[in-house]
């Protein structure tokens, strides 16, 4: 299958993470995350196997998101303190010129002091971790790591609720079994250190975003799970023990005599995992299911005089 053409706006703009993600400089965290997800989905190597430039663009997008999603780094970038790779930016006044007065000796990546001559190794030592102040964290910046690689992992409702291990295959063919975190939600991201792209400063990470599938019967309500359970008229009138599905497997529930539709019963500890420890509960709403065209039931109802008014007080 050939790769889909990429929009021109996704061109490589490594010096400006905002342009790379196609967002305004004042974009909110939600807008940045939305833009990243859209681009990551389009540029992911798995979807662009016949487009070698997609991997490079995907790496740029991921690197831009890593910077802008970190409040501290984003603020440093906006103030001009670091560049798009997270390295210290060249201080004002630095810059090489022609001749002996404009150049400098020492680390060529550090920049030069314009208007002064001689050996500037002491100046750079002060700036990058030697004597005096340490404006850049006390050390020279390390070479940049390789880009992160984004993955999406769709799991079932029951597996998410019970935190069942999930196997994911990485781009290099390796497989890893992931244990779901407590309280996992759709959109939860898991970071796998050193499972991204190789780079001069080390290997990037794999970022796995979790998608949780809907269930035909269970509904999540925070840490709890809700379920509508059909019971017969006989079970409701006389009471009964009925089998109830849970994410851990079926259990027996005691329906009390005279149960009405809408009554809610609790199964403790059968809900969703909670961050920290424990599980929520499962709430079972009883729903009386009457058979259609049951002549015996119709005859019983016709001969039954019920003095109880189920709507008493409704119109007061």
Explain what you see.
With 316 residues, the chain is an alpha+beta fold. Among the domains are: 143-214, HSP40/DNAj peptide-binding domain, CATH 2.60.260; 219-292, HSP40/DNAj peptide-binding domain (Sandwich), CATH 2.60.260. Helices cover 23% and strands 18% of the residues. A four-stranded mixed sheet has the order 6-7-11-10. Strands 1-5-4 form a three-stranded mixed sheet. A two-stranded antiparallel ribbon has the order 2-3. Helix 2 runs antiparallel to helix 3 (52-68). The protein is elongated. Mean pLDDT is 81; it is low at 1-14 and 92-138.
Query: How many β-strand runs?
Result: 11
- The helical percent reads 10-25%
Give start-end ranges of low-pLDDT stretches: 1-14, 92-138
Taking the sheet with the most strands, its summary is: 4 strands, mixed
Per the CATH scheme, the topology name of the domain at 219-292 is: HSP40/DNAj peptide-binding domain
- Helix-strand topology string: HHHHHEHEEEEEEHEEEEH
Q: State the end-to-end CA separation.
A: 68 Å
Oligomer: single chain
Query: Which class of the domain at 219-292 in CATH terms?
Result: Mainly Beta
Number of helices in the DSSP assignment: 8
Overall pLDDT confidence = 81
What does the radius of gyration come to?
A: 31 Å
State the CATH architecture of the domain at 219-292. Answer: Sandwich
Strand proportion:
15-25%
CATH superfamily of the domain at 219-292: Urease metallochaperone UreE, N-terminal domain
Q: Helices and strands: which structural class?
A: alpha+beta
Strand adjacency order, main sheet: 6-7-11-10
Q: What's the shape? A: elongated
């Amino acid at each position: 299958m050939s790769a889909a053409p990429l929009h021109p706006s996704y061109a490589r703009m490594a010096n400006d993470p905002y342009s790379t993600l196609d967002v305004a400089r004042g974009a909110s965290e939600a807008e940045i995350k939305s833009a990243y997800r859209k681009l990551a989905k389009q540029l992911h190597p798995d979807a662009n196997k016949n487009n070698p430039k997609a991997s490079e663009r995907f790496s740029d997008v991921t690197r831009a998101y890593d910077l802008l999603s970190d409040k501290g780094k984003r603020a440093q970038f906006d103030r001009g303190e670091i560049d798009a790779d997270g390295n210290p930016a060249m201080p004002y006044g630095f810059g090489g010129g022609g001749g002996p007065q404009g150049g400098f000796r020492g680390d060529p990546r550090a920049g030069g002091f314009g208007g002064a001559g001689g050996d500037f190794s002491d100046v750079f030592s002060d700036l990058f971790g030697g004597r005096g102040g340490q404006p850049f964290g006390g050390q020279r910046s390390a070479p940049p790591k390789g880009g992160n690689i984004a993955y999406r992992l769709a799991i079932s409702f029951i597996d998410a609720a019970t935190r069942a291990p999930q196997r994911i295959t990485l781009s290099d063919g390796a497989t890893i079994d992931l244990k779901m975190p407590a309280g996992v939600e759709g959109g939860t991201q898991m970071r796998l250190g050193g499972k991204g792209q190789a780079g001069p400063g080390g290997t990037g990470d794999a970022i796995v975003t979790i998608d949780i599938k809907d269930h035909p019967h269970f509904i999540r309500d925070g840490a709890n799970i809700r379920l509508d359970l059909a019971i017969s008229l006989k079970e409701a009138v006389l009471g009964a023990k009925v089998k109830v599905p849970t994410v851990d497997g079926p259990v027996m529930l005691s329906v009390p005599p005279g149960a009405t539709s809408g009554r809610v019963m609790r199964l403790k500890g059968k809900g969703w995992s909670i961050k920290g420890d424990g599980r929520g509960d499962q709430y079972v709403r009883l729903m009386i299911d009457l058979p259609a065209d049951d002549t015996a039931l119709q005859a019983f109802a016709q001969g039954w005089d019920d003095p109880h008014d189920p709507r008493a007080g409704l119109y007061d």
